[in-house]
Amino acid sequence: MNTTNFSLEFPLRLSEIRKLNKMYFEHLFRERVVFVSILILLLLIFLDLSNIDFETDFLFWLIRSLVVIVFFVVIENSFADAISEIVFKLTKRLLKFKKLNSRYKFKFTSSKVCIQFPLGNLTHKWTTIEKVILTKNFLFLYIKGHNNYIITISRKDYDCRKMEELLVFVENNVTQIIKI
Predict the structure, then answer these.
(1) What's the pTM?
(2) Tens digit of each residue's pLDDT, the chain (180 residues)
(3) Of 29, 37, 61, 147, which has the fewest beta carbons less than 10 angstroms from its beta carbon?
(4) What are phi and psi of 111, to 5 degrees?
(5) CA–CA separation, 7 vs 107, rounded Å?
(6) How far apart are CA 130 and CA 150, in angstroms?
(7) CA 15, CA 80: separation in Å to the nearest integer?
(8) Domain ranges of the chain
(9) Strands 177-179 and 129-134
(10) Fold of 3-12+107-179
């Protein structure tokens, strides 16, 4: 098989979308909320720093900034969890619309695995695949990284999916497939 031209695209089923949302995107939403809140905190501290008189107010600014940072660390987890949960519930409701479901896709190329969803793309290189497990109904790709993820691909009732071609590529070029 010529690996330079390898390219497959699979639409996702609703069950696959739900699994990916629960495992993968919920964490991604939380990370984005934490990142944005840290940026807002830093912006507030630097804006406050720009408005002080260094001769008289520096110590007071330092103490005030320290209190703000401690307060932020204390409430940040619950704040990030609440916002990411709201966004995640909103995405669950949006899944009821068929038009959005069709925008969820797996794209496989010779160098990467890409998960396309309405809010963007997530890309993993094949080198991040730690294990591949094949069952009667599913193919599981275990991705190593910061928060090890499992990508589940359904094998049943799909005429449009070229699962055999994907399995041959993975077996020959990525890692050995564990068959259960």
Answers:
(1) 0.61
(2) 445 678 878 777 766 666 666 666 666 677 777 888 889 888 988 888 787 776 767 788 888 888 888 888 888 777 777 777 777 777 667 666 656 555 677 788 888 888 877 666 778 888 888 888 888 877 888 888 766 777 777 776 555 567 778 888 888 888 888 888
(3) 147
(4) -115, -15
(5) 7
(6) 10
(7) 26
(8) 3-12+107-179, 28-94
(9) parallel
(10) PH-domain like (2.30.29)
